[in-house]
Every structure is written in structure tokens, then in C-alpha cells.
Automatic annotation (TrEMBL):
Residues 173-183 have a biased composition (Acidic residues). Residues 184-194 have a biased composition (Basic and acidic residues). Keywords: Plasmid. It comes from Novosphingobium pentaromativorans US6-1. This is Putative plasmid stabilization protein. Residues 157-194 are annotated as: Disordered.
Amino acid sequence: MADMRETLDLSWTEHRRTVDRFSAFSALDDDAKASWLAWCMAKTLEASMGIDKKAGQSGPEPIDLHDHLAALMGINVASHWRPTSANYFDRVSKQALLAHVSEVGGPTMAASFMGSKKGDLSASCEKLFAGETIVAPEVKEAALAWVPEAMRFRVLAASEPDDEAPVEHEPESDAGEVEPAEEQDAHAGETIDA
């Protein structure tokens, strides 16, 4: 994150007044603003394995915001990463490989690989999940869309507006004595840590 922050255009943060900072930020080119947005998003996201914990496992729970953002942005992990023998299949058990084959091709396809050695099964999985094996169109489609469970985004049910209690705000005490924004900035002598 520190390396990324060093590449950001900080010129807009040098202004004293909030209005001037806003105007200077608005004047940045789209790439600079997009870099700031990416940095802010990265700072706010929490790490998660993306899968529900099983009994006895530790670690962070899946975070609904990650899944929601993935749905909003239409992220398709399979279009950016494909499993190979080197990056995945050689690293999991034979039983896991058979389960993956069963997931995309059914138990009959998985049974046909039962007698295979792990190395041969790994190589076969690489071809199957790359779409290089002659199989039924629906099996090929499922294999090309498949990624390990930890790399999948969950499909969240749409939440009802009344699911969460409304946030209550405390009333402002000196509502009649609000200073203009420019005077607030001048009095505060505020600086911003961007």
C-alpha cells in the first residue's frame, strides 16, 4: 500500500481550504482520480478467504461487501485465471481432483479417472479445465467457468430495505450558529493526511 500511495498525485492536498482541495482534486485527470479511488477502496477492504469456515478452522469470515462489489462490477474470475498442473492441480489431493471433475462432468466422468495416477489425473484436469478435451458442450462450458471454491464470489440474496435498523443521528446542538465553510476552514487551520 505504501508503494501504491507514493504513485498518487498529492498536489491537491496542498491547499488549505476544503473548497480549494476539492476543486484541485476535481481538476485532476481521470487516471489520477481513478488511482485515488483504487487506493481508497484498497484501504477500506478487509482481507477474507471468501469461503465459510468449517468446524475447527480459524480465520476471517467471508465479507458480503466483496461479493456485492464483484456482482456490481461483473467480475468473472475464470476469465482472469485458469487452473493448471503447476499452479493448482499438482498441489491438491487426488480426491480433490476427482471431486472437481465430478463437479463439472458428473460422477461418471470422475469414475473414469479413478484408476489414474495423480500426475496423469493432474495433466488430464489441466486439459479439461482449459477446454482442450473433447467433451459434451455443457461439460466444457462448466469446466471453463470453474474456479476453486476460495476464488468464487458468493451470490447474495437481495436484502430488504428494512433488514437493518435505521442509523440514528444525534441532533445538532447549535444548529442556528453554523459558520460558512470558508470561515470554518480558516479557523480550523486544518490539514489533511491523504
